[in-house]
Hints:
25% strand; elongated; 7-stranded antiparallel beta sheet; binds iron/sulfur cluster; 30% helix; alpha+beta
Amino acid sequence: MKALKEKCGIFGAWNVPEAAHITYLGLFALQHRGQEGAGIIASDHGRFRGRRGEGLVSQVFKKGSLEDLKGERAIGHVRYSTAGGNSLKNLQPVWVESSNGDMAVAHNGTLTNALSLRRELEAEGSVFHSYLDTEVILHLMAKAKGSPKERLMKALERVEGAFSLLVFVRDGEKTRLFAVKDPHGFRPLALGRWNQGFVLASESCAFDLIGANFLRELEPGEVLEFKDAGFESDRLSLKVTPAPCIFEWIYFSRPDSFVFNQSVYEVRKSLGEILAEKDQQQGLKADLVMGVPDSGIPAAIGYSQKSGLPFEMGLIRNHYIGRTFIQPHQEIRDFSVKIKQNPLPNSLRGKSIVVVDDSIVRGTTSKKIMALLREAGAAQIHLRVSAPPTKAPCYYGIDTPTKNQLIAANLNLSQITDFVGADSLAYLSVEDIYQKLKPSSKMCDACFTENYPVEPKDISIRP
Ligand code: SF4
């Protein structure tokens, strides 16, 4: 499945020597959350210096380009471009100068009332520099009165939707860093320890790269204010109703991360185990199980371990294709599937195979993979999806196709099976996942159930 895109990843460093360099490494580990742009802002005795650009982290930051980003505090961002475009002004962290002092924000998520707020702020004289929903937060802070924390709290009382944030505020010669998670806790944000300092990241895999210790996930509605050698924890005044994104476990996060306090790899293996249990109950006979690389592999391993079916690779992914999947022309996308996945005929010829993928979005990629496997000689293909049918778009920070492009919103199980060209097809149910994983709170599952935790008032920030 490749049609859903995480929009952003964020990383922050506090009291860390060469904080911009550590942030650069952290963003490398979060590159899967956004490949279209990257940025870092560092603070040195209250003075901000930053660099943002289009492309991968390695393309934006060349040798020597971090040298002038001095200081022991930094925040960074990787972005996947959406309808707002990816020009420099739409990249993050967003940085503004105001009479209240410089402020900068790195945001993972999407605000669902940003357009209404923007219209209100513009009517009051605010001048926006981008189409980013994130900029609304800075304008609200600039208008608010009080200490940096009071201004941030007041601003966040007005916004709705998904926001995991890292916020820099200049306060005289000092910089304050705040880490915030919205009251639903849609997107992950983890806290780590790095020697005498602290680091924050969308996923704990970023801590592994730099040798930091994972401390914990921020709670929904939690605000951390970093001061001198430590931090204080507080809560937003908004009602906390946890709804972390279930798709972070299923697809978006890296399997080597701990997200929402669970190992993503173990979660995905568990989902594969459920699929195997259901097939065993149905008496399915097959010769092997394989996963669609890379994201279907952990669930396929779980399926194999539960069922006893041998695990085979079946498809080999070419990791060096880059971003051909974002090319706008259909014929190039068709081509990209073939050059990304190459089947292993010796493993597949004459075999009845179980193929595990993490989701079917439009169905077009699955259809091509089924055709590749048949061409390689697979006799029977039983496609198993380690998620429920994706029926509705996300408004909380994931770039999804519209409902009329989501195959499960438009076709029934039998029609989808025919469309993709499988011999059989089965999904998990939302109940299957909750029963197996027993999450500590209700999660957001709106792209499967259409039960949206926050009403999506404004679909686009563009006026
Ligand atoms: Fe996650 Fe789906 Fe909810 Fe979006 S709608 S936050 S992708 S579960």
